[in-house]
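JOB MANIFEST
job_type = single_chain_structure
chain_count = 1
residues = 97
[input]
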Amino acid sequence: MEMESLRTQLTENLDEAEWDWLIPHLEKEVVIIVESPLDLLTVGEAIAQDNANSVQHWISEALIHKPSPEQILQGHQQPKKRFQALIVQPFVLIQEL
């Protein structure tokens, strides 16, 4: 797949989500938090293209990670908290708005 068409496709999949909506995905442990210095689409592209170098780098810098138990608890206390969300099968990437 071409870079341009992948990015276009991901851009179309970009949406806002509330914490409530993420709960079934949290239970499957497929939610990944993308910290704000990173661009959600860039991370989505890297994951979709299996770009292990970038992904490993971001993990090592704690720029992308699974939600911690504390973050999950905070989320449950703010069920209407909004996020940018991007589905890159099987993952749901989220970033605080």
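[summary]
The helical segments are 3-13, 19-27, 40-48, 52-60, 69-77.
The mean pLDDT is 95.
exit_status = 0
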